[in-house]
Write a structure and sequence with these properties.
Layout: E1 6-8, H1 9-16, H2 21-40, E2 43-44, E3 53-56, E4 61-63, E5 70-71, H3 92-95, H4 102-118, H5 128-137, H6 143-146, H7 152-161, H8 173-186
């Protein structure tokens, strides 16, 4: 696996408190692009959260830990009714134990963007069960109630991501990105983040053939089976 020199978003947010709108939008855009590629090949993450997003030294965001991801093309191995995910970022359908598709990832991304611009997730509670219950039944607060400095366009975008009914959310990351890029273009130049620069191209070395001599006193290796 690639070694990412940096820190996860979960560690970054407490130090910076509220992220600048430009930085938050830049990170959300990169995560959405990564999710879009996963969805394109039929994979849904199902556990997107700040601890699974790494920010490298150049400001590039990378999605980690597809440990409970499942294929959209076939039924998963999760038993029906099983609750999979992290309560603070879990979509209402996941709370109910229903199958999760790409719209569950869109929901989680909306929760993460909410937290980046307000310094707290939309729902908090004393127990994981209490938080999950709020995700299922309570409407998300307007981010501008917690941080009036948030542009109204970002607030509307977040609230659409975290709609209870998945039919009302962005149906794909492509739809989300189209609106996000429009918002990003309206931000003042001073607020636009310098994150997400193209990574430095790595030099590749040609592969080398390695020859291993087998001791003469050992019997020869069996020939590989031939196809019939």
């Amino acid at each position: 696996m690639e070694y990412v020199r940096g820190e996860d978003l979960k560690s970054l947010m407490p130090r910076t408190r509220i992220l600048a709108a430009g930085t938050a939008v830049s990170i959300a855009r990169q995560v959405a692009e990564g999710l879009g590629e996963a969805h394109r090949i039929g994979v849904v993450h199902r556990d997107l959260k700040p601890g699974n997003i790494m920010i490298d030294k150049e400001g590039n965001a990378k999605i980690m830990d597809f440990g409970i991801a499942r294929s959209l093309a076939r039924a998963g191995t999760t038993a029906e009714g099983a609750v999979i995910g992290t309560p603070e970022y879990m979509s209402p359908e996941q709370v109910e134990g229903k199958p999760a598709d790409q719209r569950a990832d869109v929901y989680a991304l909306g929760v993460i963007l909410f937290e980046m611009v307000t310094s707290r997730p939309p729902f908090e509670g004393e127990t994981s069960l209490a938080v999950a219950h709020k995700h299922r039944y309570e409407p998300a607060p307007d981010p501008r109630d917690l941080n009036p400095q948030i542009p109204e366009e970002i607030s509307r975008l977040i609230l659409r991501c975290v709609e209870k009914e998945r039919e009302k959310r962005y149906q794909t990351t492509g739809e989300f990105l189209a609106d996000l890029e429009t918002v990003e273009a309206t931000l003042p130049t001073t607020e636009r983040a310098l994150t997400g620069r193209p990574p430095t191209k790595r030099k590749t070395t040609p592969s080398k053939t390695i020859t291993v001599k087998r001791p003469s006193h050992l019997p020869p290796l069996p020939s590989p089976p031939t196809e019939r």
